[in-house]
Task: inverse folding
């Protein structure tokens, strides 16, 4: 055996797997889910598969209409971008690009930053633990944490100390007083968080990736995200809300969405950690993921910004690790690929085009028959097949022994299985359509009123009634086995009239003999060596049952039943 394997080692070989992973999710639900952040690999590959399939069904004008809604991108482009976003090679390539870009720009970022303006209006919100200042267009350093990230004993002591400090330091506060407050209270909270108290479920890779994805989801649309880090039990980030979006609403959307998705994760160990964390938090709320209140601080100056950035980077432990770079790359590719589906008009257009081109199978409405009958061409074909078959056997009846026997009434010789199989072979050699099933169906179409029943598959004995019906020596076409059964019943009646009665054992054996003739045309003593006769005792048992008259009985049945 020579196997040509040239080039087989020049590229990696992978299993080919279907893209569709969510067959039970409707197209519109899949689109909406991607727009709302359901961007796992299964969802993206399923959407890519359906977009590719829809693209093949559209007309050129329909493709142009959808391209306008997608900002000039074709469906094939959208599908390819989704697949590239989950392709390991593409993610690795983009991660390398991010690594090079990070090295080239150092600590600088391109994010829009807004600093505290002493002359602009400030809104102060009273929180449970800390006050919150709000100002339009500024950048905030934000920390939000898991519900059990701080020990309750320390937290109670911290609250009491803060209450006493505020009582002894009434407002307004100067810069030195504010700095003292920050160092005593927010800074100490940050230190306690960094110890890593509590369930620390953010260490789980799936949970960490979920939170990172949520932070990036509306980046550029509702806010500008600067540097961030997801630590074991809390999150630090620098963020600038865009006009029309409040920081409180942005924080609520992050925590609400991620909490909902974490609770949906099918992970028993994670569920145990979440339940234990809720008990330790002391909130009394079951399955609470996040602490309700967050810490936020307005960035006051470029120096303050770099201080916060350095603090965030310190949690990363230096340059971006390869795994984090890959997560960043994947998130960027996924965000770019899914961005077009954030537009409601594109989602609506895709759903409309799908409904316009899909074939709906109605499984509810009961069909109403408004007409029935055979196609004229089909009937003409059937008549032609039966005519050619009749002409052939009439022309060759003198040359083929079995046709001579079938043409004579009564048969001049014993019709055997070998003879009929030879005829079957000759017919199929002459015309592939001359087999029992096709001929029977053709006669049923050409002369439905003269056909009773239908031939069974591989029942070659039905050639007997087919030939006799074609030769017009048999008025009705019906299966050979049915004719044998009718003749057998008539024979039993004749025997009973003549005073010949059979025992129950004899009737059982006669039934076996009848069935054998119905399938094999005749029966010989040698046939008793095979099933089903051999299972009843074979030829010896038959002689015991019928005595010396067995041979004469077989000859009589061969003549009567196959006549």
Result:
């Amino acid at each position: 055996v020579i196997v040509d394997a040239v080039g087989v080692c020049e590229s990696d070989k992978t299993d080919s797997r279907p893209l569709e992973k969510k067959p039970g999710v409707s197209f519109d639900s899949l689109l909406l889910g991607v727009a709302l952040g359901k961007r796992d690999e299964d969802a993206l590959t399923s959407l890519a598969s359906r977009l590719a399939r829809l693209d093949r069904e559209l007309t050129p004008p329909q493709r142009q209409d959808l391209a306008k809604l997608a900002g000039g991108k074709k469906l094939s482009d959208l599908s390819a971008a989704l697949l590239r976003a989950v392709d390991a090679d593409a993610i690795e390539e983009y991660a390398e690009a991010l690594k090079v870009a990070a090295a080239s720009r150092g600590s600088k970022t391109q994010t829009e930053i807004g600093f505290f303006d002493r002359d602009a209006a400030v809104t102060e919100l009273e929180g449970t633990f800390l006050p919150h200042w709000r100002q339009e267009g500024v950048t905030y350093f934000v920390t939000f944490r898991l519900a059990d990230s701080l020990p309750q004993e320390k937290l109670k002591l911290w609250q009491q100390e803060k209450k006493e400090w505020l009582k002894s330091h009434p407002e307004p506060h100067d810069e030195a007083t504010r700095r003292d407050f920050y160092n005593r209270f927010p800074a100490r909270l940050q230190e306690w968080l960094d110890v890593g108290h509590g369930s620390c479920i953010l260490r789980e890779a799936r949970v960490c990736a979920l939170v990172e994805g949520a932070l990036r989801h509306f980046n550029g649309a509702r806010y500008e995200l600067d540097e961030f880090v997801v630590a074991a039990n809390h999150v630090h980030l620098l963020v600038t809300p865009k006009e029309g979006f409040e920081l409180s609403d942005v924080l609520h959307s992050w925590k609400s969405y991620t909490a909902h998705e974490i609770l949906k994760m099918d992970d028993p160990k994670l569920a145990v950690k979440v339940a234990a964390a809720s008990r330790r938090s002391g909130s009394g709320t079951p399955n609470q993921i996040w602490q309700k209140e967050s810490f936020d601080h307005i960035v006051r100056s470029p120096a303050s910004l770099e201080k916060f950035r350095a603090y965030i980077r310190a949690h990363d432990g230096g340059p971006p690790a390869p795994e984090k770079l890959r997560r960043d790359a994947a998130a960027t590719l996924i965000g770019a690929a899914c961005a077009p589906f954030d537009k409601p008009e594109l989602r609506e257009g895709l759903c409309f085009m799908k409904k316009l081109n899909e074939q709906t199978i109605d499984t509810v409405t009961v069909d109403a028959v408004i007409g029935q009958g055979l196609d004229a061409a089909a009937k003409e074909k059937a008549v032609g097949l039966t005519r050619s078959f009749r002409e052939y056997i009439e022309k060759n009846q003198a040359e083929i022994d079995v046709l001579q026997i079938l043409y004579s009434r009564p048969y001049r010789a014993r019709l055997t299985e070998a003879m009929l199989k030879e005829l079957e072979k000759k017919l199929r050699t002459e015309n592939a359509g001359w087999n029992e099933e096709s001929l029977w169906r053709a006669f049923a179409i050409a002369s439905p009123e003269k056909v009773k029943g239908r031939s069974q598959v591989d029942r070659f004995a039905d050639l007997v009634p087919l030939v006799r019906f074609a030769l017009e020596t048999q008025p009705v076409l019906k299966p050979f086995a049915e004719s044998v059964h009718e003749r057998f019943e008539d024979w039993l009646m004749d025997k009973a009239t003549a005073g010949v009665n059979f025992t129950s054992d004899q009737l059982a054996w006669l039934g076996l003999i009848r069935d054998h003739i119905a399938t094999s045309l005749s029966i010989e003593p040698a046939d008793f060596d095979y099933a089903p006769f051999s299972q009843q005792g074979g030829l010896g048992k038959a002689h015991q049952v019928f005595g010396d008259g067995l041979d004469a009985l077989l000859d009589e049945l061969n003549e009567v039943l196959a006549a």
